[in-house]
Amino acid sequence: MTAESAEARAHVDAVVGRSKTSFLSGMRILPRPRRRAMYAIYAFCREVDDIADEPGPLPAKLEALALWRREIEALYAGRPTQPTAQALLRPVADYRLPKAEFLAIVDGMEMDARGPIVAPELATLALYCRRVAGAVGQLSVRVFGATGADAEALAVAEGEALQLTNILRDQAEDAADGRLYLPAEALAAAGIAARDPALVMMHPEVGTARRLVAEQARRRFAESRRLIARLPRRGVKPARLMLEVYWRLFRMMERRGCQQVLPRVSLSKPRKLWVLLRYGLF
Known about the structure:
By secondary structure, the protein is mostly helical. It contains 13 helices and no strands.
């Protein structure tokens, strides 16, 4: 292993080590080469997401994202310069990861960077979910070893289910940042004219709007389960594990009621361990 690849590996490990996301729990059950590939994908996602989320002028953010687009082109030409892109060299070759999906993730981060996103139309929200979650799913299923039309459909369906769950769970935090991912159509159906995130949070009918988003998430969870059942178990085990973790978060919010936004739900460590043992080993 060259010094350059050692540096790339150390960089990715540092990014992963700083993370507390549930995403990584599902990756620990993978064989080492596939796990390393997923860590590199996660590091890429983390870095472009930080560009969109951290304070700074829009031109600087757009230039940083443009640099990543050029780095992706360099990656597929076999000449990456950044540690995370260098860590992606082997996964791209081994698992035939599509360049378009990496670029889609950057496009999704640009949507956030140009934001804040406030009450998008349903079509815009679907595009956002496809870019920031579905594209990650498309890369992930290939690393897991699942291929074909059902695997690609699973990537999109589960990605949207997880992203909508995040939107429902993180609404208060997003509102504090001036963001509101509840779609305009859901707000209109609930009779909410306000678009200020803080005012929407306090509206007596916010639960109605959240319930409409929850119904779409539930449909995508159900579709994901149907697709997982049609695919070889070994190739979708991490996807199934992630689905079960997020399904439990979703159900916690449902039982609490869509009207209640706070406190932010989370699974306890024993509950996460139970899910890992139940769905990670069988």
